[in-house]
């Protein structure tokens, strides 16, 4: 039986919401610490800062790609390349995260488009991060190259 794995991220915030700032760290992998502030979240992200929505997008795109890859292999059509982007929309003060657009472009030999679309949709519904985000509408735009 597989053992549970716990992964950790850490945030440190200084000051109030509007003028404060903080850092977000990838604790488990120790791959980095990234600055963040309200402007990066509510106005426009700038190079060198991140937001919770960007991190959610990265988590969903990664999880979806892994899930889709496994499902394609089980289908007998392993992928050459799966490229996924999750665009997370945040509306400050008006509902928070209001939607996520998952965009996928994959190169897969020997698969019909109907099977590709079916498996792409099933991967969106079954990936663990999608399940964790059930309170938000996730749309899918999948393209077979």
UniProtKB/TrEMBL annotation:
InterPro entries: KH_dom-like_a/b, OsmC/Ohr_fam, OsmC/Ohrsf, OsmC_Ohr_Peroxiredoxin, Peroxiredoxin_OsmC. Residues 16-30 have a biased composition (Polar residues). Residues 1-30 are annotated as: Disordered. Gene3D superfamilies: 3.30.300.20. Pfam families: OsmC. NCBIfam families: osmo_induc_OsmC. This is Osmotically inducible protein OsmC.
């Amino acid at each position: 039986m597989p053992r549970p794995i716990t992964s950790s991220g850490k945030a440190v915030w200084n000051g109030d919401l509007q003028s404060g700032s903080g850092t977000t760290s990838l604790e488990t992998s120790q791959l980095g610490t990234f600055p963040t502030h309200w402007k990066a979240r509510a106005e426009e992200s700038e190079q060198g800062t991140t937001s919770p929505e960007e991190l959610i997008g990265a988590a969903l795109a990664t999880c979806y790609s892994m899930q889709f890859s496994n499902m394609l292999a089980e289908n007998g059509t392993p992928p050459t390349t799966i490229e996924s982007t999750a665009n997370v929309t945040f509306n400050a003060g008006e509902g928070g995260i209001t939607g996520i657009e998952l965009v996928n472009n994959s190169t897969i030999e020997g698969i019909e488009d109907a099977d590709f679309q079916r498996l792409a949709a099933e991967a969106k519904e079954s990936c663990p991060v999608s399940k964790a985000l059930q309170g938000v509408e996730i749309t899918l735009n999948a393209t077979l190259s």
